[in-house]
Amino acid sequence: MSLLLHCCCAPCSVACVNSLRSENINFKLFWFNPNIHGLQEYKQRLDCIINFSKNENLELLKNGEYGLKEFLTQTDHGFDLPPVRCEKCYRMRLEKTASYAAKEGFDSFSTTLLISPYQDHEAIKRIGGEYAAKYNIEFLYRDFRPLFREGQSIARNKNFYMQKYCGCIFSEEERDKEKSSRQGTKNAENAKEEKRSFSSSSSSSASFAEPSAESLRLCEKYFDRINMLVGDENLKKLSKTSALVFGLGGVGSWTAEALVRSGIGKIGIIDNDVVCASNVNRQAEATSLTLGQPKASALKKRLLEINPECDITVWDELFCRENAMRFNIEKADYVIDAIDSLEHKLDLIELTLAKNVTLFSSMGMALKTDPLQIRADSIWKTDVCPLARLVRQGLRKRGFNGDFTVVYSGEKPVKSGGSRNFGSIVTVTASAGFLLASLVLRDITSK
Questions:
Q1: Closest-CA residue to 358 (of 332, 323, 394, 326)
Q2: Which positions ≥6 away from 75 have C-beta within 8 Å?
Q3: More confident residue, 165 or 276
Q4: What are 176-215's pLDDT values in tens digits?
Q5: CA distance linking residue 188 with residue 151, whole number of Å
Q6: What average pLDDT does the segment 116-135 reach?
Q7: Cβ atoms < 10 Å from Cβ of 381
Q8: What are the angstrom distances between the C-alpha of 173 and each of 88, 90, 312, 441?
Q9: Is residue 200 exposed (0-12), middle (13-18) or buried (19+ Cβ within 10 Å)?
Q10: CA 291 to CA 118: how far, in whole Å?
């Protein structure tokens, strides 16, 4: 297979190149980035990718030069704001790559934009598919995001030019505004700290005291309010309970957090994805500070800040039938299925119930806006939910005749603005996650 790989910059290209080479894919680099402004920035990035391609013995194909006018024309002279402006930018670059690849006889095309957690990964995938159909050529999709930090490290070690903003003049302006805002906040916090320090030193000459024994026993008080509801014995049961949460998206991440906040003593969290910008609206671990980090590792840090005594195990990897043994499902008291992939979801359901471990599973929460329509019931009694229907069909094909409880929405899916992406909102996904955690807690305290 011959591939034309659109390259946005050298730092993003290096890990993508290594990954494609490991697959023995024959590819050439393609440079078309009219979004990069100003002229000096454009030249620095282009010079870097030229040197990189020479050192790696790769052929670099170029189309067009500094494209300020073209970019401004396509994006309504800057009046478009993200994500509209960004999507138009993706379309400019991906269509040019697809048409060039088709014209020159390549079998497929792709882009190094797929490595960045700061880009709208789902939009890139969707747009790439549209132009693949238009030009009768394959869009080679690869989720390079897990390689992001590795690529950045290699780029720094090789002294690549490391850009400070996405590329266009508008993103540069937005970066400076955010930087100024952060600096203003930091200055204000420093001023408050100085004021507190001055006040302390002037009112007393005594040094700051070491943490008291009482403060060190704060953990015992974390769950006082739960204790008032369920009693000492049930609280002890919670502390001795272990749970595995598979999938840390908009549902699973909140399930894990709710369990930890409720006194669960041991939890395993499993996800192979990294945090990207489009996760921030609905996932517990996703913030501006965790972009590019593995979801499971980022969530562990958050959970330990909530309860440092919780025993947390992390798997930054994908669950599948082939590696199921390493998760020790049979040793868990509860398994939470919040996996998106149908095949892997079916595998987890079968394997968990075969080991007689209690399972609670989440169905589809995308394209839903009303948390009041979320409910829990047998998988065989679900309705409306498209994912639940597929799960029932898949289980029947596998000859499965068991039963388990699922959380699903009875709301009919809403349209998502004509997009192929599945829109989702935290008020729904988190509500489903909290309901899953509630099923665990109620099961424990009812025994």
A1: 332
A2: 85, 88, 89, 168
A3: 276
A4: 665 555 555 555 555 555 444 433 333 333 333 343 444 4
A5: 36
A6: 92
A7: 12
A8: 18, 19, 41, 48
A9: exposed
A10: 7
- The alpha carbon torsion through 438, 439, 441, 446 (nearest 10 deg) reads 130
The C-alpha atoms of residue 360 and residue 395 are separated, in whole angstroms, by 16
Q: What angle do CA 174, 177, 178 make, to 5 degrees?
A: 85
Predicted structure pTM score: 0.63
Among all chains, which residue has been given the structure tokens 């080991």? 355
Confidence of residue 417 (pLDDT cuts 50, 70, 90): low
Check: CB of residue 235 under 8 Å from CB of residue 226. Answer: yes
Of 10-19, 148-157, 355-364, the one with minimum mean pLDDT is 148-157
Domains plus CATH for the chain? 2-173 (3.40.50.620), 224-446 (3.40.50.720)
Average of per-residue pLDDT across 392-400: 95
Q: Residue written as tokens 């489009």?
A: 278
What is the sign of the dihedral through the CA atoms of 396, 401, 402 and 404?
Answer: positive
Cα-based angle 376, 381, 383 (whole degrees, multiple of 5)? 85
Quote the CA–CA distance of 290 and 309 in Å, as a whole number.
23
Q: Contact at 8 Å (CB) between 25 and 106?
A: no
Distance, in Å, from the CA atom of 87 to the CA atom of 3, rounded to the nearest integer, reads: 23
How far is Cα 126 from Cα 123, in angstroms, rounded to an integer? Answer: 5
C-alpha to C-alpha distance for 120 and 128, rounded to whole angstroms: 12
What backbone phi and psi angles, to 5 degrees, belong to 307? -140, 95
